[in-house]
Design goal:
187 residues; alpha+beta; 6 helices
């Protein structure tokens, strides 16, 4: 977690946008998943999908030490085994399209996932789609250190406003995908 948090929520899209949350902050929340599919680097095209890898739950703690910031962009979705105990197919076209931001912008049913995340410069920009608000609320409760401030989760769930948390103080902020403009005003 960075020394600040900028966050807003669009309930109709089941989408959270944030700056300040790094991939390693998600690892405890991903403990319920069997693993993740991860794309590092730029998104692909329909003719040449981006490369991605399937990581098992046991591999996730080591990811806390990976430099995803150096990858520039990355995308990931958690996955859960199917009824036969198998992970998703590693060459599944829907997974590649989803991680390349070309597919449906929701957690993919074939993965039985809770989260679908697109990030740039790990911790700088995060767009997180989710299946159930309770999963997001639990993840945020575990991620946001009290020293940043206390976020009103009910207000965040309703959407409409953005929030800036830093040094124990919570301020209203405009919702925006233009993270640079927010950070230039705040930092």
């Amino acid at each position: 977690m960075r020394h600040y948090l900028y966050i807003w929520h669009e309930p109709a899209e089941r989408m959270l946008v944030a700056s300040g949350i790094e991939f390693k902050d998600f690892i405890p929340a991903l403990g319920k998943a069997d693993g993740i599919v991860l794309r590092t680097g730029s998104a692909g095209t329909p003719r040449k999908p981006g490369r991605y890898q399937t990581l098992a739950r046991q591999q996730l703690p080591a990811m806390a030490h990976e430099d995803l910031y150096a990858c520039g962009s990355h995308a990931w979705a958690d996955w859960h085994k199917d009824g036969q105990g198998k992970p998703p197919a590693s060459l599944e076209a829907d997974v590649a399209a989803m991680l390349d931001h070309r597919g449906a912008l929701t957690p993919l049913p074939a993965l039985r996932s809770r989260f679908l995340a697109f990030a740039h410069d790990d911790g700088w920009y995060l767009k997180l789609f989710y299946a159930a608000w309770d999963d997001v609320a639990a993840m945020l409760t575990g991620v946001i250190p009290p020293a940043l401030g206390t976020l009103d989760m009910d207000a965040l769930q309703r959407g409409g406003d953005g929030y800036w948390l830093q040094d124990g103080k919570v301020d209203l902020e405009l919702p925006s995908h233009d993270i640079d403009s927010v950070l230039n005003r705040r930092l």
